[in-house]
Amino acid sequence: MPRQLVDLLLLAAIWGSSFLFMRLGAAAFGPLPLAALRVGLAAAALLPFALAQGHGGFMRRHWRGLVLLGICNAGLPFALFSYAAVTLPSALLAIFNATVPLWGALIAWAWLGERPGPQRALGLTVGFAGVVWLVLSRHPVTSGLLRHEDHSILLPAAACLLATVFYAGSTLATRRHWPDSPPLAVSAASLGGATLLLALPAAHAWPAATRGVRAWIPAVLLAVLCTALAFVLFFRLIERAGPAYAMSVTYLIPAFTALWAHLWLDEALTPEVAAGGGLILLGTALSNGLLKLPGRRIGA
Fold first, then answer.
1. More confident residue, 35 or 263
2. Which domain holds residue 143?
3. Does residue 299 fall inside a structural domain?
4. What is the pLDDT of residues 107-149, one digit of tens each?
């Protein structure tokens, strides 16, 4: 199995669990404190390793751009998803997150002039069809959104979609401005920048009551596993396989989120979820070129 595919599946499995931890952490700490804890603890975990490997000079030279990258790729989207996690179920958060490659393709087309070829366009369409199928089949709460009768979902859904735009744009910016940069240094410095953005707002919104150990467990796992380790894997994927391949991880995340929710929260895995997950996997394989269409060669 190619190394990039192993990294892609591992990253999807890790980020699939992040939405469960966000649901638990946002209920305990609130959206802004949770987002600040996530980036702050992750930066604290990575910065010593980055410095030990001699990346201090790189981070000093590029600190302005890396701070901006951290704000767009971590600080703002983490806060937006944490806000949505107070209201929306974890699997629905993951499904909204799966629109990142769609935004990435549109931004790459508008910004970089990279028009997707027929096979990649087909893969994105199939993957998005799987996302829509999961929304319609698994989450009755979305029916209110589709009928425009229940507006309680509109702001959280808009927050998720805005976060995915930030994710897509910052991923493309990483390739454009730091194509050969060390993933550990980019991860550590950008998370440090996100911490600077969120520190004061989080301190103002910090809950008055002291949180117990059980409340801290999902926050620490979200920071160390789903952010520190995941960011290194993600930027390594961008470096080795390109941003389009790296962003396609978001198509796999809903399937893993549904799996973890079944294992940890005893939610049933229905045939509808299996069908939607299959479409997402197929779309990912087509858009990444892992699966080639038969017959005449079609450009990716």
1. 35
2. 3-288
3. no
4. 887 777 777 778 878 887 887 787 777 666 645 544 444 443 4
pTM for the full predicted model: 0.81
Domain count, the chain: 1
In a domain, residue 296? The reply is no
Q: What is the 3-class SS of the chain, one letter each residue?
A: CCHHHHHHHHHHHHHHHHHHHHHHHHHHHCHHHHHHHHHHHHHHHHHHHHHHCCCHHHHHHCHHHHHHHHHHHHHHHHHHHHHHHCCCCHHHHHHHHCCHHHHHHHHHHHHHCCCCCHHHHHHHHHHHHHHHHHHHHHCCHHHHHHHCCCHHHHHHHHHHHHHHHHHHHHHHHHHHHCCCCCHHHHHHHHHHHHHHHHHHHHHHHCCCCCCCHHHHHHHHHHHHHHHHHHHHHHHHHHHHHCHHHHHCHHHHHHHHHHHHHHHHHCCCCCHHHHHHHHHHHHHHHHHHCCCCCCCCCCCC
